[in-house]
Protein backbone atom coordinates (compact mmCIF):
# COMPACT_ATOMS: atom_id res chain seq x y z
CA UNK A 1 0.00 0.00 0.00
CA UNK A 2 2.84 2.38 0.92
CA UNK A 3 4.58 1.67 -2.39
CA UNK A 4 1.37 2.33 -4.29
CA UNK A 5 0.91 5.64 -2.44
CA UNK A 6 4.50 6.68 -3.15
CA UNK A 7 4.08 5.73 -6.80
CA UNK A 8 0.92 7.85 -7.03
CA UNK A 9 2.58 10.83 -5.36
CA UNK A 10 5.61 10.37 -7.61
CA UNK A 11 3.37 10.44 -10.68
CA UNK A 12 1.83 13.69 -9.45
CA UNK A 13 5.28 15.08 -8.66
CA UNK A 14 6.56 14.22 -12.13
CA UNK A 15 3.71 16.24 -13.62
CA UNK A 16 3.53 18.86 -10.85
CA UNK A 17 3.70 21.84 -13.21
CA UNK A 18 0.57 20.68 -15.04
CA UNK A 19 -1.12 19.53 -11.83
CA UNK A 20 -0.77 23.02 -10.34
CA UNK A 21 -1.95 24.77 -13.50
CA UNK A 22 -4.99 22.52 -14.02
CA UNK A 23 -5.76 22.33 -10.31
CA UNK A 24 -6.04 26.08 -9.81
CA UNK A 25 -8.51 26.31 -12.69
CA UNK A 26 -10.59 23.51 -11.16
CA UNK A 27 -10.54 25.39 -7.84
CA UNK A 28 -12.10 28.36 -9.59
CA UNK A 29 -14.92 26.16 -10.90
CA UNK A 30 -15.65 24.29 -7.62
CA UNK A 31 -17.06 26.89 -5.20
CA UNK A 32 -18.47 24.22 -2.88
CA UNK A 33 -15.03 22.77 -2.29
CA UNK A 34 -13.62 26.26 -1.67
CA UNK A 35 -16.13 26.98 1.08
CA UNK A 36 -15.57 23.60 2.70
CA UNK A 37 -11.80 23.99 2.93
CA UNK A 38 -11.71 27.58 4.27
CA UNK A 39 -11.55 26.53 7.98
CA UNK A 40 -8.43 24.46 7.25
CA UNK A 41 -6.44 27.33 5.67
CA UNK A 42 -3.95 27.87 8.57
CA UNK A 43 -3.18 24.15 8.73
CA UNK A 44 -2.59 24.05 4.98
CA UNK A 45 -0.10 26.92 5.29
CA UNK A 46 1.75 24.90 7.94
CA UNK A 47 1.77 21.82 5.69
CA UNK A 48 3.15 23.68 2.68
CA UNK A 49 5.94 25.18 4.80
CA UNK A 50 6.71 21.83 6.47
CA UNK A 51 7.10 20.00 3.14
CA UNK A 52 9.65 22.60 1.99
CA UNK A 53 11.59 22.51 5.28
CA UNK A 54 11.69 18.69 5.32
CA UNK A 55 13.54 18.62 1.99
CA UNK A 56 16.29 21.06 2.99
CA UNK A 57 19.39 20.64 5.15
CA UNK A 58 18.51 23.33 7.70
CA UNK A 59 21.89 23.08 9.46
CA UNK A 60 23.73 24.08 6.31
CA UNK A 61 21.13 26.74 5.54
CA UNK A 62 21.40 28.22 9.06
CA UNK A 63 25.22 28.26 8.96
CA UNK A 64 25.13 30.07 5.62
CA UNK A 65 22.44 32.54 6.72
CA UNK A 66 24.27 33.49 9.95
CA UNK A 67 27.42 34.67 8.19
CA UNK A 68 27.68 38.47 8.76
CA UNK A 69 27.87 39.36 5.08
CA UNK A 70 24.99 37.02 4.25
CA UNK A 71 22.90 38.49 7.08
CA UNK A 72 23.45 42.04 5.83
CA UNK A 73 22.56 41.00 2.28
CA UNK A 74 19.42 39.23 3.50
CA UNK A 75 18.36 42.27 5.56
CA UNK A 76 18.83 44.53 2.53
CA UNK A 77 16.76 42.15 0.39
CA UNK A 78 13.92 42.13 2.93
CA UNK A 79 13.87 45.93 3.16
CA UNK A 80 13.78 46.15 -0.64
CA UNK A 81 11.07 43.48 -0.72
CA UNK A 82 8.72 44.97 1.90
CA UNK A 83 9.45 48.71 1.81
CA UNK A 84 10.90 49.73 -1.56
CA UNK A 85 8.73 47.43 -3.69
CA UNK A 86 5.30 48.61 -2.43
CA UNK A 87 6.44 52.22 -2.85
CA UNK A 88 7.52 51.54 -6.44
CA UNK A 89 4.29 49.67 -7.21
CA UNK A 90 2.24 52.54 -5.70
CA UNK A 91 4.12 55.05 -7.86
CA UNK A 92 3.61 52.99 -11.00
CA UNK A 93 -0.07 52.59 -10.15
CA UNK A 94 -0.48 56.34 -9.78
CA UNK A 95 1.28 56.94 -13.11
CA UNK A 96 -1.01 54.36 -14.75
CA UNK A 97 -4.09 56.12 -13.36
CA UNK A 98 -5.33 53.19 -11.26
CA UNK A 99 -8.24 53.79 -8.91
CA UNK A 100 -8.27 53.12 -5.15
CA UNK A 101 -8.98 49.38 -5.59
CA UNK A 102 -5.99 48.89 -7.87
CA UNK A 103 -3.64 50.96 -5.72
CA UNK A 104 -4.63 49.04 -2.59
CA UNK A 105 -4.04 45.73 -4.36
CA UNK A 106 -0.56 46.86 -5.45
CA UNK A 107 0.45 48.13 -2.02
CA UNK A 108 -0.81 45.08 -0.12
CA UNK A 109 0.97 42.82 -2.60
CA UNK A 110 4.24 44.66 -2.16
CA UNK A 111 3.91 44.65 1.64
CA UNK A 112 3.30 40.88 1.83
CA UNK A 113 6.06 38.28 2.41
CA UNK A 114 6.85 35.60 -0.18
CA UNK A 115 4.53 32.60 -0.26
CA UNK A 116 5.41 29.83 2.18
CA UNK A 117 5.66 27.44 -0.78
CA UNK A 118 8.36 29.53 -2.51
CA UNK A 119 11.03 27.02 -1.50
CA UNK A 120 8.85 24.17 -2.75
CA UNK A 121 8.40 25.83 -6.13
CA UNK A 122 12.17 26.42 -6.32
CA UNK A 123 12.82 22.75 -5.60
CA UNK A 124 10.36 21.85 -8.34
CA UNK A 125 12.09 24.18 -10.82
CA UNK A 126 15.70 23.49 -9.86
CA UNK A 127 16.32 26.95 -8.33
CA UNK A 128 18.03 27.87 -5.03
CA UNK A 129 15.42 26.67 -2.53
CA UNK A 130 17.57 27.50 0.53
CA UNK A 131 17.72 31.19 -0.45
CA UNK A 132 13.98 31.26 -1.07
CA UNK A 133 13.34 29.71 2.35
CA UNK A 134 15.67 32.19 4.11
CA UNK A 135 13.98 35.12 2.40
CA UNK A 136 10.51 33.77 3.19
CA UNK A 137 11.23 33.21 6.89
CA UNK A 138 12.91 36.58 7.52
CA UNK A 139 10.34 38.51 5.46
CA UNK A 140 7.46 36.70 7.21
CA UNK A 141 8.83 37.74 10.60
CA UNK A 142 9.41 41.33 9.47
CA UNK A 143 6.17 41.80 7.49
CA UNK A 144 3.80 42.34 10.47
CA UNK A 145 5.99 45.21 11.65
CA UNK A 146 7.00 46.79 8.34
CA UNK A 147 3.80 46.06 6.40
CA UNK A 148 1.29 48.14 8.40
CA UNK A 149 3.65 51.13 8.50
CA UNK A 150 4.22 51.02 4.74
CA UNK A 151 0.50 50.59 4.05
CA UNK A 152 -0.36 53.56 6.30
CA UNK A 153 2.28 55.75 4.66
CA UNK A 154 1.18 54.96 1.11
CA UNK A 155 -2.59 54.61 1.46
CA UNK A 156 -3.21 57.11 4.24
CA UNK A 157 -6.76 56.32 5.30
CA UNK A 158 -6.40 52.55 4.87
CA UNK A 159 -8.13 50.39 7.44
CA UNK A 160 -5.82 49.84 10.44
CA UNK A 161 -4.22 46.41 10.68
CA UNK A 162 -3.72 44.64 14.01
CA UNK A 163 0.03 44.14 13.56
CA UNK A 164 0.56 42.19 16.80
CA UNK A 165 -2.21 39.72 16.07
CA UNK A 166 -0.88 39.25 12.53
CA UNK A 167 2.68 38.82 13.83
CA UNK A 168 1.60 36.17 16.33
CA UNK A 169 -0.44 34.28 13.74
CA UNK A 170 2.32 34.30 11.14
CA UNK A 171 4.93 33.40 13.72
CA UNK A 172 2.84 30.47 14.96
CA UNK A 173 2.38 29.10 11.44
CA UNK A 174 6.07 29.45 10.61
CA UNK A 175 7.12 27.82 13.90
CA UNK A 176 4.62 24.98 13.48
CA UNK A 177 5.61 24.40 9.86
CA UNK A 178 9.32 24.46 10.64
CA UNK A 179 8.91 22.09 13.59
CA UNK A 180 6.78 19.67 11.58
CA UNK A 181 9.24 19.80 8.67
CA UNK A 182 12.20 19.03 10.93
CA UNK A 183 10.25 16.16 12.51
CA UNK A 184 9.44 14.71 9.07
CA UNK A 185 13.08 14.99 8.05
CA UNK A 186 14.21 13.29 11.27
CA UNK A 187 11.72 10.43 10.97
CA UNK A 188 12.11 9.83 7.23
CA UNK A 189 15.83 10.54 7.04
CA UNK A 190 17.64 12.73 4.47
CA UNK A 191 18.57 9.76 2.29
CA UNK A 192 14.99 8.54 1.92
CA UNK A 193 13.70 12.05 1.28
CA UNK A 194 16.27 12.49 -1.49
CA UNK A 195 15.37 9.08 -2.92
CA UNK A 196 11.64 9.91 -2.93
CA UNK A 197 12.07 13.45 -4.28
CA UNK A 198 9.28 13.04 -6.84
CA UNK A 199 6.84 11.89 -4.16
CA UNK A 200 7.68 15.00 -2.12
CA UNK A 201 7.13 17.10 -5.25
CA UNK A 202 3.67 15.51 -5.40
CA UNK A 203 2.94 16.22 -1.72
CA UNK A 204 4.09 19.82 -2.16
CA UNK A 205 1.94 20.32 -5.25
CA UNK A 206 -1.17 18.93 -3.52
CA UNK A 207 -0.54 21.06 -0.42
CA UNK A 208 -0.23 24.21 -2.55
CA UNK A 209 -3.47 23.40 -4.36
CA UNK A 210 -5.41 22.78 -1.17
CA UNK A 211 -4.01 26.03 0.22
CA UNK A 212 -5.36 28.19 -2.61
CA UNK A 213 -8.74 26.47 -3.01
CA UNK A 214 -10.38 28.24 0.00
CA UNK A 215 -9.44 31.64 -1.45
CA UNK A 216 -11.85 31.11 -4.35
CA UNK A 217 -14.90 30.98 -2.09
CA UNK A 218 -17.51 33.33 -3.63
CA UNK A 219 -15.27 34.46 -6.48
CA UNK A 220 -17.20 32.76 -9.29
CA UNK A 221 -20.36 34.72 -8.42
CA UNK A 222 -18.44 38.02 -8.69
CA UNK A 223 -16.95 37.00 -12.04
CA UNK A 224 -20.41 36.24 -13.46
CA UNK A 225 -21.90 39.43 -12.03
CA UNK A 226 -19.04 41.82 -12.95
CA UNK A 227 -16.91 40.23 -15.71
CA UNK A 228 -15.16 43.47 -16.73
CA UNK A 229 -14.09 44.18 -13.17
CA UNK A 230 -12.87 40.60 -12.76
CA UNK A 231 -10.90 40.77 -16.03
CA UNK A 232 -9.24 44.01 -14.94
CA UNK A 233 -8.26 42.50 -11.58
CA UNK A 234 -6.93 39.38 -13.27
CA UNK A 235 -4.83 41.45 -15.70
CA UNK A 236 -3.43 43.41 -12.76
CA UNK A 237 -2.60 40.22 -10.84
CA UNK A 238 -0.78 38.69 -13.82
CA UNK A 239 1.14 41.87 -14.57
CA UNK A 240 2.27 42.29 -10.96
CA UNK A 241 3.19 38.64 -10.36
CA UNK A 242 4.94 37.79 -13.64
CA UNK A 243 6.31 41.33 -14.03
CA UNK A 244 8.09 41.33 -10.67
CA UNK A 245 9.45 37.84 -11.25
CA UNK A 246 10.92 38.77 -14.62
CA UNK A 247 12.35 42.16 -13.63
CA UNK A 248 13.98 40.95 -10.39
CA UNK A 249 15.33 37.70 -11.85
CA UNK A 250 16.89 39.49 -14.81
CA UNK A 251 18.22 42.30 -12.60
CA UNK A 252 19.80 39.89 -10.09
CA UNK A 253 21.45 37.69 -12.70
CA UNK A 254 24.52 39.92 -12.94
CA UNK A 255 25.24 39.66 -9.21
CA UNK A 256 24.20 36.04 -8.64
CA UNK A 257 24.07 32.73 -10.46
CA UNK A 258 20.95 31.66 -12.36
CA UNK A 259 19.66 29.53 -9.48
CA UNK A 260 19.89 32.34 -6.93
CA UNK A 261 18.62 35.02 -9.31
CA UNK A 262 15.67 32.86 -10.33
CA UNK A 263 14.81 32.04 -6.71
CA UNK A 264 14.90 35.74 -5.82
CA UNK A 265 12.62 36.61 -8.73
CA UNK A 266 10.20 33.80 -7.88
CA UNK A 267 9.97 34.90 -4.23
CA UNK A 268 9.59 38.55 -5.23
CA UNK A 269 6.65 37.96 -7.54
CA UNK A 270 4.77 35.37 -5.50
CA UNK A 271 3.52 36.89 -2.24
CA UNK A 272 1.26 35.72 0.58
CA UNK A 273 -1.25 38.50 -0.03
CA UNK A 274 -3.91 36.27 1.53
CA UNK A 275 -2.55 37.20 4.97
CA UNK A 276 -4.06 40.65 4.53
CA UNK A 277 -7.42 39.17 3.62
CA UNK A 278 -7.56 37.78 7.15
CA UNK A 279 -6.37 41.03 8.72
CA UNK A 280 -8.75 43.41 6.92
CA UNK A 281 -12.55 43.70 7.08
CA UNK A 282 -14.30 41.89 4.20
CA UNK A 283 -13.64 43.61 0.88
CA UNK A 284 -15.07 42.03 -2.26
CA UNK A 285 -12.66 43.78 -4.66
CA UNK A 286 -9.55 42.88 -2.68
CA UNK A 287 -10.76 39.32 -2.12
CA UNK A 288 -11.33 38.96 -5.87
CA UNK A 289 -7.82 40.22 -6.62
CA UNK A 290 -6.19 37.87 -4.09
CA UNK A 291 -8.05 34.86 -5.46
CA UNK A 292 -7.16 35.66 -9.08
CA UNK A 293 -3.55 36.32 -8.02
CA UNK A 294 -3.27 32.60 -7.22
CA UNK A 295 -3.63 31.74 -10.93
CA UNK A 296 -0.31 33.24 -12.13
CA UNK A 297 1.29 31.97 -8.92
CA UNK A 298 0.46 28.33 -9.69
CA UNK A 299 1.19 28.80 -13.39
CA UNK A 300 4.72 29.97 -12.50
CA UNK A 301 6.41 26.54 -12.88
CA UNK A 302 4.74 26.02 -16.26
CA UNK A 303 5.21 29.46 -17.79
CA UNK A 304 8.15 31.17 -16.07
CA UNK A 305 10.85 28.48 -16.17
CA UNK A 306 12.85 30.02 -19.01
CA UNK A 307 12.57 33.54 -17.58
CA UNK A 308 13.76 32.40 -14.13
CA UNK A 309 16.53 30.19 -15.50
CA UNK A 310 15.07 26.95 -14.15
CA UNK A 311 16.80 23.67 -14.90
CA UNK A 312 15.01 21.83 -17.70
CA UNK A 313 15.28 18.44 -16.01
CA UNK A 314 13.86 19.71 -12.70
Number of structurally distinct domains: 1
The low-confidence runs, each spanning 5 or more residues with pLDDT under 50, are none
Distance between the termini: 27 Å
| CATH fold naming | Na+/H+ antiporter like fold
SSE-based structural type: mainly alpha
Transmembrane segments: 37-54, 74-93, 105-124, 131-155, 161-184, 205-224, 230-249
Membrane topology: Multi-pass membrane protein
Pfam families: SBF (PF01758)
Keywords: Membrane, Transmembrane, Transmembrane helix
Mind explaining what this structure looks like?
The chain is mainly α and 314 residues long. It has helices spanning 2-14, 16-29, 31-37, 41-54, 58-65, 68-95, 100-110, 118-125, 129-155, 163-188, 190-195, 197-212, 219-225, 227-252, 258-269, 274-279, 284-303, 305-308.
Describe the structure concisely for a colleague.
By secondary structure, the chain is mostly helical.
Topology:
Elements: H1 2-14, H2 16-29, H3 31-37, H4 41-54, H5 58-65, H6 68-95, H7 100-110, H8 118-125, H9 129-155, H10 163-188, H11 190-195, H12 197-212, H13 219-225, H14 227-252, H15 258-269, H16 274-279, H17 284-303, H18 305-308
Summarize this structure as a short list of keywords or feature phrases.
Bile acid:sodium symporter, transmembrane, mainly alpha, Na+/H+ antiporter like fold, 18 helices, membrane
Amino acid sequence: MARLLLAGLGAIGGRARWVLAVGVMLALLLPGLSAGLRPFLPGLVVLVFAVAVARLDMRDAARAALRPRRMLRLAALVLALLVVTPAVLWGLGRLAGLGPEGLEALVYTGAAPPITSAAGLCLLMGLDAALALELTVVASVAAPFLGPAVVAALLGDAVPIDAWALALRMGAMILAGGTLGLLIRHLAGPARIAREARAFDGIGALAMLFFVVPLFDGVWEIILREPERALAMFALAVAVNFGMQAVVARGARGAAGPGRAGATGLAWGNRTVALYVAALPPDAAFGLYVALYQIPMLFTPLLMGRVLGARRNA
